[in-house]
Every structure is written in structure tokens, then in C-alpha cells.
Amino acid sequence: MAKRIEVSGLHAYYGGTHAIEDISMTIEPRSVTAFIGPSGCGKSTFLRTLNRMHEVIPGARVEGKVMLDDEDLYASSVDPVAVRRVVGMVFQRPNPFPTMSIYDNVAAGLKLNGVRGKRRLDEIVEESLRGANLWNEVKDRLGKPGAGLSGGQQQRLCIARAIAVQPQVLLMDEPCSALDPISTLAIEDLIGKLKSQYTIVIVTHNMQQAARVSDRTAFFNIAGTGKPGKLIEIDDTSKIFTNPEQKGTEDYITGRFG
Amino acid sequence: MTTLSRTKSSTLESVSAGRKARDRAAKVFVYLAFLLAVIPLVSVLWTVISNGAKRFDGVFLTHSMNGLASKDAGGGAYHAIIGTLEQVGLTTLISVPLGVLTAVYLVEYARNGRLGRTISFFVDVMTGIPSIVSGLFVLAFWLLALGMDFSGFAGALSLTILMLPTVVRATEEMLKLVPGDLKEAAYALGVPRWRTIMFVVLPTALPGIVSGVMLAVARVMGETAPLLLTIFITKAINTDPFSGAQGSLPTFIWDQSTDPNTNAVDRAWAGALVLILLIMLLNLAARLVAWLRKPSSR
Which segments constitute the ABC transporter domain (chain A) (predicted)? Predict the structure, then answer.
């Protein structure tokens, strides 16, 4: 069910600001692709163009092509809402719905899309929570508010919520940056497990994390303040971290930046 | 080095006497300000309760003033309570959906467009309308121009003009407080915008919207001027808000208190007490509803 993403000639703008410039890459199915690079280089912006979340911001627009297998996400006939059901997303800060219980948080995507039937929902909720390694911790308090969990648990709840709608691709925007090392480890294990079923793209500032979890790594950089972000190179993670093609990548990875 | 030698040897010692004195002065000032703010409130409550208790009885709550002159003892505000509940109920039924939807439009859809700015401007203008003017408007438009009869509904219309902008503003402020994160989380699940608003944004803002609505209800419940011109006060019980003159608590209080007779004045005080109690009960009920909806209480 995982799908391949092929991006070609992609530009993104915020109003008059050119945020990312001419990005082309292929993201392989059933693998983890990590995006690394300095702050403000457009990693998150690029990630958000992959499920049409970029255009949620007023004045934001995208040019170029994003192919999901053989469908163009930016074709005029495509409904952005339908795209987001296929390409799920986990955010930097855990954001469970505060008015909903743990159960309702996981079931939210299904319920709000009209899936009915308690048996079916129960099954999917359990399956998703197990998938997110959270079931054993919360199975006795599914009716309690999701906001009452710890930060790491909340983030796994958000992952459960994202996989409950059975997407083909899972985008993660710095999913561990607000978490302690133990919760981070739990999420990384989970990513390793999920990649057998999903195409996973993860933005991270943590180089070790990129090295640990990803199969391929893309390095983004920016020429200067106000300039658009660019893709410098994308390759197998082992190659990027040991023998990158570009000098800029090597400087960034070894900490000799700028 | 001279400055160093002048500072105290230990930084853990207590702060200087001057700073302590200033701290104490500020504390006293804060408590005084609080007391000053509470005095009028307590005084109003005390006066209304002590004067209203005389006639706050079963007869008062179950009888109208039908057939009674103002000098007579007995009688009550039943007709006025019915009138106020129906008028304010209708007002709430009209202004809450209209106001909440307007606020949703302004916050979620208009995004500073020309139409949104225009609506915002007129909502501000509406907030400033003196209450008597809203009564005059309904009198001129609904009763005189369209030739409708005096009724509780006409009163509700004039109250709606006053309540609508308050509901819009309160809801707008609450909707703006809903974190963008939550909306994005819902969008990222492939939830359409209107469902996101219905099932994520509005429930998150609900407690705030409820308190805003309750404040607005409390405000219009005490309005007298617009009702004077629209409901054509009666002493008899009229349970149908859509036809014929109706009573209401504020006009009952006004009517009885302008009469130089102790029986009437006592009824006015009891009426004021009933009005305050009604508003309090509604507030408590609204809080209960908001509390029951939270998942933690289950």
C-alpha cells in the first residue's frame, strides 16, 4: 500500500517570498527518507507541499509537480482533502484534540470522515494504538482525555491518530524535537516498525537520528537570509554521512558549518 | 571594586527593607482595589435580598397582577417571569446561531477580506447602539411600517439587536484562541474544513462561547427600554409570545417602583430579586453543561 513520491521542479512561495526553489527528488516506498539542514532552509515547507498542507497558510502557493505513483497531487481535478487522507502527517509539537478522549482522538479521522459502527471503530482504534506502541499504556483509560498523557505518549497518540486513517505515506515534521531521549527512542523504534508498511519522510535536526532511522537522507541548504531553500543532495544515508558528493553537506554534517 | 565592597556579603540574605516596604504597599493597594470593586456588588446584593425577601413568596411567583391596583397587597410577577423567559429565550434562539455563524465566517472564512472587514465594522457599530434605539427601530419597522401587533416576539427582536453583536464578538475572540495546530491536525487527517470547524474548532472554544453567551443573556434580561416600546406591558398572563401584549420582569420592576405605594415598591424589589436569581440559575446551568461535556468528567 505504500507509494512512491516523485517530485520535479517544485517551487513554494509564501506570498511574495520564494521559500524553496526547484526541488526534484524521488522518495522510495517502504523506506524512511530523512530531511536535514539548517533552520529556515525549507525542509518543513517542502514536507508540507507533499500533502498539500502548505496551501492552508493564507497566501501560500506551490508550482511544480508531485507524483504519487502515477497521480499528480497538484492536478486541478485533485481534492486536497482527499490527498491528506492518503498522505498523513505528524507534527513537531504533539497536538491531540483537547476536547476528545484517547479513543476519540484515534477515531477522530475516521469519525469525521463518516466511518460508523462501533465494532469497526474499536478494532481500528486498538490496531492503531498497538501500531503506535501505545496500547498497553492506555488500554485501561481510553475514555480519559488525550491531553492528560505525557508528551511522548501524546506524540505516539498523534501517530496512532495519523495511521488510523490508513494513509500510504506518513510525513513527520521533527516528531521528536519536543521529547526526552526515552520517548525519542520509542518513536524511533516505531518508525523502524512502520516503514514495512508506509513510505515515511521525516524532518529532523538531530543528525544521529537521521543516521539511525533513515535509509536515504536529503540535505537542504540556503544561500543566505531571504534566499530560497534548495536541495543540495539526496543519497543513501550511509553515503551522505560518510562520503557526501557536496562539500556543503560534509561541512554541515561534521559541524564545520558556514 | 568599591561597588563590590558595598554589596552584601551573602546573596541569600533577605532583600532590603525598602524593597520589602514597597512589596507590602503594593499588596495593600491590590487588596484595597479589590475591596472597592466588591463593595458596590455586595451592597446591591444586600439591598435587593433584604428588600426583596419581604414579597419573595409562593404567591409572588405564581400570581399575576391581573385585576389588582398598585396599592393592593398580594399579586405577583408570574406574568412577568413568563414574559421575560419567553422573550429572552426567543432572543437567544435567534442571536446565538446567527452570532456564532457570523463569528465563524469572520474568523475562518473572511480572513480580512473586504466583506469581513465591513461586517466587523457594522458589528462594532451595533455594539454601540443605545438600547432605546433598538426598541425604536422595532417600533418603527416591525410594528408601524409592517403593521405587526405588539408582542413578546417584537420585544425579542429588539433584544436580538442588542445581543447579536455581543455574541459575535465573544465567539470571535474565543475562536481566535483555538490553536492553529489543532486545525492543521484535523486537515492533515483529511477532514474537510466545515467538519473541522464543527467537530474540532467549535467544541474547543465551547466553554468560552458559553460564558460569552451567558453574559449577553444576562445583559439583555435586564433591558427595560426596548421592551417598553415593543411588548405593550400587560398585568395579565399571556403565554403566547407571538400575539398580544406581554409582561416582563424589567418593565414590571420599572412599573411597580414608579408607584409611591409600599405594596408596589415591595413587589418591585421582589421582582429585582427574581431577576437576579434567574440570571444566576441560568449561569449555573450553562456552567454545568460545559462541565459535563469535558472528557475528564466521564
Answer: 5-247
> Residue-wise pLDDT tens for chain B (298 aa)?
445 545 555 667 667 888 889 999 999 999 999 999 999 999 999 999 999 999 999 889 999 988 888 788 888 899 999 999 999 999 999 999 999 999 999 998 987 789 999 999 999 999 999 999 999 999 999 999 998 888 999 999 999 999 999 999 999 999 999 998 899 999 999 899 999 999 899 999 988 899 899 989 998 999 999 999 999 888 889 999 998 889 999 999 999 999 888 999 999 999 999 999 999 998 898 888 877 776 554 4
A&B contacts, CB < 8 Å: 87
Claim to verify: residue B217 and residue B112 sit in the same structural domain: yes
- As given in the structure block, the three cell numbers for residue A120 are 469497526
- The ipTM (two decimal places) reads 0.87
User: Are A84 and B188 within 8 A, CB to CB?
Assistant: yes
Number of H helices, E strands in chain A: 10, 10
Give the domain range for residue B29: 18-55
Identify whether residues B75 and B218 lie together within a single domain: yes
Dihedral sign for Cα B124, B130, B133, B138, please. Answer: positive
Domains of chain A: total: 1
Chain A residues touching residue B183 (CB < 8 angstroms): 56
Nearest CA-CA distance, residue A144 and chain B, Å: 6
**Is residue A127 included in any domain, yes or no?**
no
The CATH number of the domain holding residue A86 is 3.40.50.300
Domain assignment present for B11: no
Question: Which residues in chain A are closer than 8 Å to B111, comparing Cβ atoms?
Answer: 58
Do B207 and B139 lie in one domain? The reply is yes
Residue B128 lies in a domain: yes
Q: Quick check: is A204 in a domain?
A: yes
CA–CA min distance A101, chain B (Å) = 6
- For residue B210, tell me if it sits in a domain: yes
Question: What's the burial of B29, exposed, middle or buried (CB within 10 Å: 0-12/13-18/19+)?
Answer: exposed
Residues B140 and B40 in one domain: no
Interface test with B, best of A81, A103, A161, A173 (most B CBs within 10 A): A81
**Nearest residue, CB atoms, A53 vs list B188, B191, B294:** B188
Residues B129, B221, single domain; the answer is: yes
A59 lies in some domain: yes
